[in-house]
Amino acid sequence: MKRSRKRWWTRLITLLAVLTVAAASISAGFTLLIDSVPSYRHDLENAVAKAVGHPARIGPMALTWSGLRPTLDLREVALLDAQNASLLDVRRIRLGLSPTRLITGPRTPDRVEIDGVQLSARIDLDGQIHLDGIDPARNSDRSLADDLARFAQLRLHDVRVALSDARLGDQ
């Protein structure tokens, strides 16, 4: 009986060691891929630009792990206007990827953590709020709330909004 328990314990330790080495290898491979293939960052910036309707700039990227969940860590993310002026600045975005979704699809994040957001908003004469860099008409069949509802978890930290209200006049 003791031998059987010892064998299971040994197998469990071996399995955990193999999983740890595999996760570290995937993270290292991802980091090497990003560093050796600069077009990967450009492809990601193009995908973001297509999704939000504005050019995007992404700084350092890394793949980290939270338990058995891979997390894509993006730093110094900015949405730009036509003159390359910043519409929206984000210090860090962490995109949590579900292992189940990675295997079965869709291969989109299910958890998002945004830290250090700086954006501008304006209130027009009709009282409608407009966020610079976020176009509510880009997907007429879905609202911004629908886009955000697809995430199992959405966390915002250190959010700063510069607000101008047209109803108050020039101030």
Give your account of this protein's structure:
- The protein has helices at residues 2-36, 39-52, 99-104, 144-149; strands spanning 56-57, 61-66, 69-80, 86-96, 111-123, 129-131, 153-165.
- It is α+β, with helices and mostly antiparallel strands.
- Strands 1, 2, 3, 4, 5, 6 and 7 form a 7-stranded mixed sheet that branches.
- The mean pLDDT is 81.
Short structural summary:
Helix content is 36%, strand content 35%. The protein contains four helices and seven strands.
Question: What are the defining features of this structure?
Answer:
7 strands, 36% helix, alpha+beta, 171 residues, seven-stranded mixed beta sheet
Classify the secondary structure makeup into a structural class: alpha+beta
Strand content: 35-45%
Q: Segments where pLDDT lies below 50 for 5+ residues?
A: none
Percent helix, as a range, is 25-40%
Distance between the ends: 81 Å
Mean pLDDT: 81
What is the number of helical segments per DSSP (H or I, 4+ residues)?
Answer: 4
What's the layout of helices and strands?
Elements: H1 2-36, H2 39-52, E1 56-57, E2 61-66, E3 69-80, E4 86-96, H3 99-104, E5 111-123, E6 129-131, H4 144-149, E7 153-165
Parallel strand pairs: 5-7
Antiparallel strand pairs: 1-3, 2-3, 3-4, 4-5, 5-6
